[in-house]
Structures are given as C-alpha cells and as structure tokens.
Amino acid sequence: MRERLIRLFEWVADNAPVRTGRAAVQTALLVLGLLGLTAWIVYMTNGTSQPFLHLTYVPVVIASLALGLVGGVLTALAGGLLVLGPLMPLDVSAGLLQAVPNVLYRTVFLVLIALMTGSFGESIRRHRQASESSQARLQRLYARNLRLFATLVSERDRETADHCERVAHNCVVIGRELELSHQELLILYWAGMLHDLGKLGVPEAILQKPGALTTEEFEQVKKHSNIGADFLIALSTAFEPIAQGVRWHHERWDGTGYPDGLKGEEIPLTARILAVADVFEAVTSERPYHHALDTAEAVEIIRSGNGTHFDPQVVAAFEVLVVNGQLLSQDAEPMTRFDELVVELGQM
Predict the structure, then answer these.
(1) What backbone torsions phi and psi does residue 45 show, to the nearest 5 degrees?
(2) Which domain holds residue 102?
(3) Is residue 136 one of the residues assigned to a domain?
(4) How many beta carbons lie within 10 A of that of residue 212, not counting itself?
(5) Domain total of the chain
C-alpha cells in the first residue's frame, strides 16, 4: 500500500505541476471547492470533535503537488481558517467553540504537511527533469555513433549505403502505416540504415561478384547479419532492439530463413518489416549480379512471398504504400537522407 501511494504521489507530482494560466486557476478553484465541501462535511458531522476534520489533508496535498509549495501553504492556511479554525465549532450540537491553541496547532500541522508534500513533489520533478536531460544527451551520443557506423558503410561501398538509406526510409513508411510508436520508428530506421553493417566483414570480391555465388561464398555472405548485430551489442546493450532487426532480417515467415530459422511471430516485427523493405529495394536496384526490376515486377515478388517469406500484415501495409507511391526505389528522387529523416522523426 505504501509503495502504491508513493507511485501515485510521483505520478501526480510529475504530471500535475500547473503554476500559471488557466489550468492553475482551474486547479485553485477545485481546491477551494474541496475545502468548502470538507467544511460542510465537518460541520454536518457535528464539528471538529469528529474524525472527518482529517479530510482537510486531501485538498492540501493536491494543492502542494499541483500548485507547488506556495499553493500548498496557502491552501493549508485556508483550511485552518475554514475547516479547523474559529469559524468551525468543536461540537455543533453542544454549541462548543474551539480553543485557540487547538486551532493554531492544527493549522501549523497542515502547513507542515503542505511543506513536506510540496518539497517532495519539487524533488520528484527536479529528479525527473535531470533524468530526462541525461537520457537526451545519451540518445544524442548513440545517434552520433550510429551515424558513424552508417558512414563506415558508405566509405566501403556507396551503392550499399544508398541501398541502406532507401531501406531505412521505406521501413519507417511501413512502420507508420502499421501505426508504430515514435520509438519503434527510430529503431526501425536505424535497423534499416545498419542492416548491412556486417558486410564490412565480408570480402569485397564476394560482394561485387557479377555471377552466382558458390555455396562457400554464400555461407560467407550469410554471416553478415550476425556480424552486424554482434558488433552493435558489443558496443552497447542499448542497441539490442536495433540489433534484433539487423540479426534477423533474413529470417522467413515459414521458418526457412537464416541465421536461426525463426518462424512467424518469433521474428521481431522490426526484422519482418525490414525483410520486405530490403527485398523490394534490392530487386528494384541495379546490381552486378542482376538488372533492376520495375515496381510492378517487384510487387509481384513480394506478393509471391506473402505467408512464406513475408509477414502477411507487413505485405498488406506494403501494398497500400506502393499504390500511394510512398516507397523509394533506386530511381526515386529526391532521396531522403538519414539525417533529414531523424530530424523529422524528432519533431513527431
């Protein structure tokens, strides 16, 4: 019970600090209304000799958390005057008035409650603000690291870098169609940008080979998903959600993919979205080992893999976006770069 009460106080202190403007006026009127209601209850239950006078704590605590120290103290003084003070009899039926020392004692106690509650609320808000500021700085640091990795891919192979940027853009567009959250879209974006990071560990001769790969060469290529994911996690466990997309974007809905043969919803949604975006961009791009297909041909490839290679839910969203012309391919201009898209996501 104590822990629940503390969590409630934390929630109110974090979400209800209204010091100025219309919200503050509305809160002040609410507090005054509660004081009036409390005074009426105390009087109708025969005065301050009954336990109902303790209801005065409720508007005092609300004011201290929502209006701050000053609002809480003013509410406590008003409570001492209206509910506990000389205007309120000790015993209504007997016509007994309260003694002045009792009035002063109870009012001082209310003020102390207001000071302690208000200080607690201020401490929670300062701690939350400091935590959010630290989190924002950490996220900026992570973003710089992720951009650095994207730059490494770009320096190794500009064609692969452009592919990753288009895949990242399309991942976010599909994610929006599926109504994913802001944080999920950021994870999707960076998973798309870095899904081929592990190809830095694959010999360039294999990646640029114009003909079919041998079995041994294909096994080399298949390692790139684990290489990229392991690299991200080794740098920071905070990159785990991104690494999941990188590791499993070659898994298939029917369980015949790699590296782990995951099936259906065992595959994280990030990886399922990335799988569709990756194949679409790859088949519509000119490569050493194949010519670019047009959009209609690419859509047929995605449809043919519906329920076997790809998640049907993701394919349905993909088809809507293709019809609306919202997906990028190699010949699409202008191409959204990752810095611009991250700024756009940050403004959501």
Answers:
(1) -100, 20
(2) 2-129
(3) no
(4) 8
(5) 2
